[in-house]
Amino acid sequence: MKRIFILTLTAISFAGCSKLDEQLGSQLSTGGGAGGAVSPSQILAGTYDAMRLPYQDQSRVWAVEEHTTDEVIGPTRAGDWDDNGVWRVLHSHQWDPNHGFLADTYRDLGRIVYSATDLLRFSPTAQQAAEGRMLRAMANFFWVYGWDQVPYRENTADPLEVPKVRKGVEVLDYIISELNAIIPALPDGPANRCNKNAARVLLMKCYLSKGVMTNRAAPTFAKADMDQVITLANTVMAGSYTLTPNFFDNFAPTNNTLSTENIWTAENIGGSSSGNVRSRWFLGLHYNQNPSGWNGFTTLSDFYNKFAAGDKRKGGDPYPGMTNVSGIRPGFLVGQQVDQNGVALKDRTGAPLAFVPEVKLTEVGKNLEVTGIRVIKYPIDYTGGDNANNDYVYFRLADVMLMKAEAILRGGTDPSAQTPLQLVNLVRARSNAVALGAVNLDQLLDERGRELYWEGWRRQDLIRFGKFLAAWQEKAVSDPKVLIFPIPARSLAANPNLVQNPGY
Asked: pLDDT tens digits for 314-342?
C-alpha cells in the first residue's frame, strides 16, 4: 500500500501543531482509485496506523497513563534518562503546559480524530464508517480523561474551520451516542479490528467514568450508569471469550492465536509493520541482557508487594521462545539475572546484575544499573526485529469482569446475581492467586493493578477510585489541579476555542 503524509492547515489547527515541517499526517493513503482518487479503505487503514504511535510508544499514552502513577518510575541514572527531567516531572506530578510528551500525546490523539473524521467525507461503507468512528471514540475517550477539552469538527464542516471544543461529560455523552449508533454496523470480529464487543467495552468505560467527568475530585456513580455497565458486561461475557490459561499468552508474539480473551487489539506484523510495542521490554531491560535494553523504567516496591507469593501474574515461570533464548522470564524481574544457560549476568562495571526493589527518582553512586524491579508484560519477540509481532492489547475479558465487579460495588444490580467476589476470584484463579474472602473498592483497585499493570489504565483507575492525589513512593500529595493536564501551550496558540485548564 502506497502512503503519503497529507499536510494541511486543518491538521495543524486541529492537532495543535505549530510547525509545517512536523510530520502531521495520519498516514492517510491515496492511489486506491481511478486518477489517484482517495480510497476510503486506505484512509481507514491510515487511521488504524495513526493509533500505533500514541498507544504503543513509551512516550505517549503509556507515559500519560502509567508514568504518572504508582506503577512506574523513570529514574535518572547519572547521565542516563535525564531527558531534561521529563520523566521525573511525570512521576512527581510537576508538569506544566510546555511538557513535551503531554503535548505530543494531545497532538497525536488529535491526528486520529482528524483522520477518522476525514474518512467520513469519502463515502465509506457503513462498516468502514463505523470502524472510523470507533477509532475516533477511543481517541476522544483518552483525550477527555487527560485534558477535559476535546476539539472537534463536524463531518461536513469547512476543513479550514477552527475546531470547536467539547468538555467533560458532554464528550462522554457524545462518545456514548456514537458507539450506540455504530454497533449494528461493526463486525463481530476479529479482535484486531474494531468490533461490536470492543465498542461495548468502551461504552462500559464511559458509563463508569461519567461521574469522574462531573467532579474528578469526588466522583459519584449513578445506579443507572452502573446498571448499563453490568448489562454491557453480561453481553460481552456471553460471547466466546474465556480467560486465557497462561496469563502472558495474551501479550505474546503469537497472541492473535494464543489468547482466548483479547477483545480488541492493534495488529502488528512481525518483521514487516508494527507500532513500537517492543518498547514494552526494551524500556526496562539492562544493556547486558538479550536484547540489550535501555536500562530505564521500573516498577515500585510498594506496587510489587501487592502480589502474594504464587500469583503467576508476578511471573517467574520460564516462557518458551524467550527464556530458552535469553534467560528472561515474563513478569517482574528482581534479583540476580541469568542468561539462557543459567549463567549469572554482570552489569557494565562487572558487578552482579541483580535488580533490587529500591529505586529513587534520581540515582547516584554504584547502583545506577540495578535499582528498580523491571517488568516484562509482553513476552519478547526475537524474530521480528524492530517490528515485533505482538498485537498490542486494548481490551480483554479480565478487564470486563473487573469493571462489572466495580459497577456492582458502586450500586448496580446484576440480573444474574453474580457477585463482585465471584468475579474477582474467577480472575485470580486463572493465575493461581489464592481466593479472597471478601472484596471492597480498595481491594478491587489493588486487583485491577495486579491484573492490568502496565496496560495503560492505572491513571484512570486511580482517579476514579479517588487515589490519584495521594502520596506514594517518590511522590508527595498532589495539587488537585493535576487531575486534569494542562492544555499544551502550542495547542492554545493554534485554537482560540481552547482555554487553559484551572491552576496552569
From this structure: 999 999 999 999 999 999 999 999 999 99
Pairing of strands 76-77, 362-363: parallel
Structure confidence by residue, pLDDT tens digits, 386-404: 999 999 999 999 999 999 9
pLDDT at residue 367, rounded to an integer: 87
Long-range pairs for 198-202: beta carbons < 8 A, 24 or more residues apart? 198/134, 198/263, 198/264, 198/394, 198/395, 199/134, 199/137, 200/232, 200/235, 200/236, 201/232, 201/236, 201/263, 201/264, 201/395, 201/399, 201/400, 202/134, 202/137, 202/138, 202/141, 202/175, 202/395
Instruction: Say if residues 447 and 428 touch (Cβ distance below 8 Å).
Output: yes
C-alpha–C-alpha distance, residues 503 and 486, integer Å: 8
How far apart are alpha carbons 115 and 124 in whole angstroms? 13
Confidence of residue 364 (pLDDT cuts 50, 70, 90): confident
Q: Give first-to-last CA distance, the chain, whole Å.
A: 44
Which position has the grid cell 513500537? Answer: 276
pTM of the model: 0.93
- Tell me phi and psi for residue 490, to 5 degrees: -70, -30
Q: Which three cell numbers stand for residue 98?
A: 510546555
Helix (H) or strand (E) holding 101: helix 100-119
pLDDT mean across residues, the chain: 92
Q: Please report, for residues 31, 53, 112, 114, 374, the alpha-carbon distance to residue 50 in angstroms, rounded to integers and kept in the order given.
A: 18, 7, 6, 10, 29
Instruction: Kindly tell me the burial class for residue 270, based on how many C-beta atoms sit within 10 Å of its own C-beta (0-12, 13-18, 19 or more).
Output: middle
DSSP character at residue 375: E
Portion of the chain with pLDDT greater than 70, in percent: 92
Q: Is the pLDDT of residue 185 over 60?
A: yes
Contact 74, 296 (CB under 8 A): yes
